[in-house]
Predict the 3D structure of the following.
Amino acid sequence: MPRVTSATGARATGTAAPTFREGVPLRNVVPEDLWRPVRITLIVAYGLGYLWWLRVKGLPLDRISVTISVVLFLGCAFIGRPRHVWKQLAIDSLLYAAMWYAYERTRGAADALGFPVQVESMRDIDRFLFFGNDPNVVLQQHFWHSTVRWWDVVASLTYHTHFVVPIVAIAILWVASHRQWVRFMKRFATLLLVACAMFVVLPTAPPWMVSQKYELLAPLHRDPGRGVVHIGFKGFVHSWNVALGNGNAIAAMPSLHASFALIVPAFFLPWLRPKWLKALVLLFPVLMLTSLVYLGEHWVIDGLVGWAIVGGSFWFWNRMERRGRRQKANRARVALAGLA
Amino acid sequence: MPGLDPPRILLDSTFIAALINHDEPSHADAVAEYADLLDRYERDEALLAATSDSLSGMSPSVRASLFAPLEELRVAEQYRNASLDVYGSSGEDPDFATLLVVIDRERVAEVASFDARFDRFDIRVRPRRAPAESADPVPPAQ
């Protein structure tokens, strides 16, 4: 950046000020970090490898596969960084793993703690919101066909971004800015905590279960993978079916699919400049909720509550962070006043 | 990743010394500048930092009060190793050379300092002041 201009100096002193050379750029003096091109190369290689794996083997969905892929990515992205950065990464990783472990244990145990399963209540709320209609049923009656249509592919792909988008966002933030990673994880962990509490106290049967098992809803088809199978991603459907078997089927409320689809764009929204881009990005959670309802996986109210939890999480942590900055600044100001 | 965080402003040892010490000639400037930086910090428009070298030896009470908003930038061994190339070729002293490496590697946007040596480099320095004349300044227009 150019330094002083003569015009400024002339105005200030009333005399013609000398002009100066521009400062020496720091990159001319400080040796380049030789590990940086190595990291970039490894990250690109990882990306290509991930895409190849996606195509040949399928999307990694179970926790172990996801953990391995995240660990590999972090290894590529952090190689050559200082020891204290690795130490911080180790602490972060332990906390991250602890968060997911607590989530999995709670989610898995939620349906065994004796709270009554909500079978009709969410259906009734959706009927109230939609003037007596069942959105899941209406969408499938209008759009479900025995042959796969383009919207089935869109819905299926959107559904499965749930297993990729938050993890990718977390990994990118981990590398790009530890401060922003911490901010995101606070909000994300809060979402998981509240969701798990709700899985425990309000176990909720999803629409497909209310239809197929309880027969309290018109028949619904359930095949969220058929769209992506249609375009050739056979591998992860097998993994997904296994993952489904290990999940908690009555953890519909709130919808973490809908929540995750909002929390990532909402977090990055302040950095998006054009308003149209912000609006476009916010269409993603709407598309996700529409897909979930069409696929019979969630009630509309599951998604709305999920979004409300995201909003609450942001509100809470934005307040806490503002308060923290204010407290530290005021502490410094009091000490500064003592110096005067 | 540039742009995700507010700009990081490094307070070097000359600034910290001027702030703490009433007898320093730049004390009043340092106080005024730091007050402005605190406002920016509170509005989340700036991150304030200092190196672990600058903060070492500081009493915990001062660290927790006057410098509560500051994040500590660890001076890694690889930064000190890289600084050997800086002071070897440019004649800068080792501590200043290490500081230049930290500024580069930790993506510091501005430096709060009263060290005139920064004037030689393309670094934004606060408080803003007329830089020292270069070795061969261009003569003023007649």
Notes: The longest strand of chain B covers residues 47-51. Chain B touches chain A through 54 residues (CB under 8 Å). DSSP finds six helices and five strands in chain B. The CA atoms of residues 63 and 116 of chain B lie 26 Å apart.
